[in-house]
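Action item from last week, closing it out:
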Amino acid sequence: MSNALRKMLLGKIHRATVTMADVNYEGSITVDGELLAQAGILAHEAVVVWNATNGERFETYAIPGEPGSGVVCVNGAAAHLVSRGDKVIVACFGWLEEAVARDWQPRVVFVDDRNRMVDPGRREIPGPATPAAAAAPAVARGSEGRYNRTR
């Protein structure tokens, strides 16, 4: 049996809506504490944030916000990478032994536009899984560095 370690997704909050960006704060991302708990993300744990609206990616650490508040506030320098209303994915990773990793299921939290949890227990669906997803407009970076819909 191999003792190899694999870097695996432990948990994520999928397509949360940024409620605030505060460049004057010292750093981090403040997220509704209930969402963090459901995703298995600990206070001060390193997280990666993928901005689905503009393609930016960054790493920071999570700070629990008021449970049930729906807050998703990007703080510090990373606030330059998001705008209020952007859709983001907040994820944490960890190292698991290969035997454990093979059967691993991450904790995935899906939210609505107000950052309220929806579809508890739902697993991720590989895309594009539906005709609607396949027909969604693609996004490309224009010559000015801005993101533009291609159709």
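Closing note: The domain at 5-116+137-149 is CATH 2.40.40.20 (Barwin-like endoglucanases).
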